[in-house]
Amino acid sequence: MKKIVMGLFVIMAIFTLAGCGKGQVKAAKHVEEAKTTKVSEDINHSSVPTVFIHGYGGTINSFGGMIQRLTDEGKMKRELLITVQTDGSLKVDGQLSKQKDNPSVQVLFAANKDNEWNQTEWVYTVLNYLKQQGVEQINLVGHSMGGVSSLRYLTTYGQPNDAPVINKFIAIGAPFNDFTDTANEQSIEELLQNGPSSQASRYLDYNNGIENVPNKLPILLLAGKLSEDTTSDGTVSLSSALATYSLLKNHGNPIEYQIFTGANAQHSQLHENLKVDQAVADFLWK
């Protein structure tokens, strides 16, 4: 009889422990779900989309990681993907919710190695489409040639009535003075004060079109260097990435810059750098 009672006790204990285990799994799952839906409380949320333009040879991965990280952190929401086809037509995936979730619009160029003049026209095509969808304001973020083409859009078109107003503009590792490095001719301080001592045709184009840029537009220039002793991110020099600082400041634009150092500041790693993520989020939404 004692053996039967003891057996029943053991069986009940096993079932009790199994029940506790299931409860613990559910609790852990609930915590994980809560973590992945966390909304960042130190960020201002609005329905203004942020448009991301990749660089030369860029793909969906170019800004895909940054957009996903910022989405996971509750700082923005991945919503729309627009691919500009080789004939200039648009392939649109997703939909803007028009909710206050800092939506993203990732732009891809099928001809991802075309010239900056064509890219500038494609930027206009995308923004014109967004205007037709009822979007009145956007933020604009460009990496490398994406930054070059975005600024060329501004110096060419300014603020057209058939495109959304640009609230803020960020350029990441953009070669605004082509691949010229003036480090041997001037310090960074002199560059920021006076502009590049040697000016490529690209920079001269910006200078000629500067009056078209809305002078109240806040701008952030982000640049990288591989180490304290280097003057470039391995592809674009600091002096080129920061070349337009003086030009835009003298035009009246509120402008800031940040320099990142180390392996994660390498040109194609800048959009994977968590500190760059933070700089982007702070400038756009804080």
Automatic annotation (TrEMBL):
Keyword line: Hydrolase
Q: Which InterPro entries match?
A: AB_hydrolase_fold, DUF915_hydro-like
Q: Is Transport among the key words of this record? A: no
Alphabetized Pfam families for the sequence: DUF915 (PF06028)
Q: Which Gene3D superfamilies match?
A: alpha/beta hydrolase
The protein's GO terms of the molecular function aspect are: hydrolase activity
For the keyword Hydrolase, the answer is: yes
Question: Under which name does UniProt file this protein?
Answer: Alpha/beta fold hydrolase
What is the source species?
Answer: Enterococcus xiangfangensis
